[in-house]
Specification:
Length: about 325
């Protein structure tokens, strides 16, 4: 009997070891497993690109859990990385902690370098508060894993962007319903220093149209500071085309170089494309990442567009405006 009991115990221990091994393997795959994907297999909406020159790699994140973009529990935020802008690795960089109220509709993550860390910000929905809040996470590597810095959101809103003022103050800008909001941040990007203020209403932009239900919904804007100190804003909203309403990307400019504006509309910058973000290739070329035309928010891959910049403006490159660069150095 003693021998049988020992054998049974040994079998149970072996089962437990196998179960632990399987769980560890699954966790490793979820958090850090890498697999090569083509650019057209990178499924991200509201994407941003972070070049990390010390690694020779580009990182993409944004709205990455497209299967649960509107409902259901979210996986969190994935990060894709590449050396050549052609083949990409994917890993889960942040998942909601067990028991967290912020556990669905994870939208529009961004990654920012901050001293010896990387800060991720993303809009995550709370079923308790019935709203999206901008959460901050931190990691020591751009690909994560990221740890939640606080259960309290920086502010309400979606699709966060961080813009530095002319005096060096970081500002958090969010999109959503009509109003584009901004609030100053502490240097560690952990707290807002004042209540959010409205810098622009989408309804004020000529050509921008409300949604079918009469309400306003738009992507958060992205910004690029020109050499002369002025600030360019791109943001997406509905636009009436001959064949119906679709998203378009509008361009505005603040000649004061301040978020407070005034913002001067300069028309449609990109028809039928949205979710833009500015970034630079390692060769110094200014780029724009957008969602391809006609692709829903639940699907699609990033499209890279080469830009041309002067001291006082930025515009589509006359020769390669629709070209998708195939390498980091071409």
């Amino acid at each position: 009997m003693e021998i049988e009991r020992h054998v049974l115990n040994q079998r149970e221990q072996n089962k437990m070891k196998r179960a632990c091994f399987i769980l560890a393997a699954v966790a490793a795959y979820a958090i850090g497993a890498e697999g090569t994907l083509r650019l057209d297999e990178v499924e991200v909406s509201m994407h941003m690109v972070l070049p990390v020159e010390s690694e020779g790699r580009y990182y993409i994140t944004g709205t990455t859990d497209l299967a649960n973009v509107w409902e259901g529990k979210t996986d969190g935020f994935h990060v894709y990385s590449s050396r050549d802008l052609e083949t990409w690795d994917r890993k889960l960089a942040w998942a909601p902690p067990p028991g967290s109220e912020w556990n669905s509709r994870a939208w529009g993550a961004i990654i920012l370098p901050l001293k010896d860390k990387y800060i991720m910000m993303g809009a995550v929905y709370s079923s308790q508060r019935k709203k999206h809040g901008i959460l901050t996470m931190e990691a020591y590597k751009p690909g994560g894993p990221y740890k939640l810095r606080s259960e309290e959101p920086l502010m309400e809103g979606i699709d966060p962007q961080v813009v530095y003022g002319k005096d060096g103050t970081p500002w958090l800008v969010t999109g959503g319903r009509d109003a584009i909001m901004a609030a100053p941040l502490s240097d560690d990007l952990l707290h807002t220093l004042a209540e959010p203020d409205t810098i622009l209403h989408a309804s004020q932009v000529p050509g921008a149209e409300p949604a079918a239900d009469g309400g306003w919904f738009h992507d958060a804007p992205v910004f690029h500071r020109l050499r002369n100190g002025e600030l360019v804003m791109l943001f997406s909203a509905n636009f009436i085309f001959p064949d119906g309403i679709a998203f378009a990307t509008f361009k505005l400019k603040s000649k004061t170089g301040e978020l407070s504006g005034p913002w001067i509309p300069e028309g449609v910058f990109l028809p039928r494309q949205h979710g833009a973000s500015f970034w630079r290739r390692f060769d110094g070329e200014l780029m724009l990442t957008v969602k391809p035309a006609g692709v829903s928010i639940e699907r699609g891959h990033p499209e890279f567009i080469l830009l041309k910049e002067t001291r006082d403006d930025v515009f589509l490159h006359p020769d390669k405006s629709t070209e998708v660069p195939n390498s980091a150095t071409e």
